[in-house]
Amino acid sequence: MKAFIFMAMVFCHIIDDYKLQPPLLNLLKQKSWWEKNAPEKLYRHDYLMALAMHAISWSFMIHLPVAVYYNFAVNFTFIISFVINAVIHGFVDDLKANRHKINLITDQLIHVIQIFITGFILLYGG
């Protein structure tokens, strides 16, 4: 059963990173889009909100199979995992979309590693 949870987490990752992320949100995560389309100083950090929105959605999706497995009886470890995964996901997406330090392969590899570490901690960590 736990192997199925890992597979469901990866599936939820694919759904959220590719199907639930509309093209506009993908653009809004890019600092350059804001510089070109809304160059006023007021909007210079708005790309961070788009990154956060997607990162929270992604973290929710990869945690959903675990929450279902435990009948939504989440604990402190689950909540901390949710927050840490959202922060890491946002940081990694920023490295790809804005800083151009990593490519899509590295981005996805990091996200899959996140999933397996998260699953291991939440399913086998006691």
What does this structure look like?
The protein has 126 residues and is an all-alpha fold. 78% of the residues lie in helices and 0% in strands. It has helices spanning 2-19, 23-28, 31-37, 46-69, 76-97, 104-124.
Helical region count? 6
- Computed over alpha carbons, the radius of gyration is 16 Å
- Count every beta strand, where a strand is a DSSP E run of 2 or more residues: 0
Helix-strand topology string: HHHHHH
Q: Which structural class do the helices and strands define?
A: mainly alpha
Shape: elongated
Strand content: under 5%
Calculate the mean pLDDT score and round it: 96
Major beta sheet summary: none
Instruction: List unreliable stretches of 5+ residues.
Output: none
Percentage of residues assigned to helices: over 70%
C-alpha end-to-end distance: 16 Å
Fill in the keyword field for this structure.
single chain; 126 residues; mainly alpha
Record the SSE blueprint:
Layout: H1 2-19, H2 23-28, H3 31-37, H4 46-69, H5 76-97, H6 104-124
Helix pairs in contact: 1-4, 1-6, 4-5, 5-6
Short description:
The protein is an all-alpha fold. It has helices at residues 2-19, 23-28, 31-37, 46-69, 76-97, 104-124.
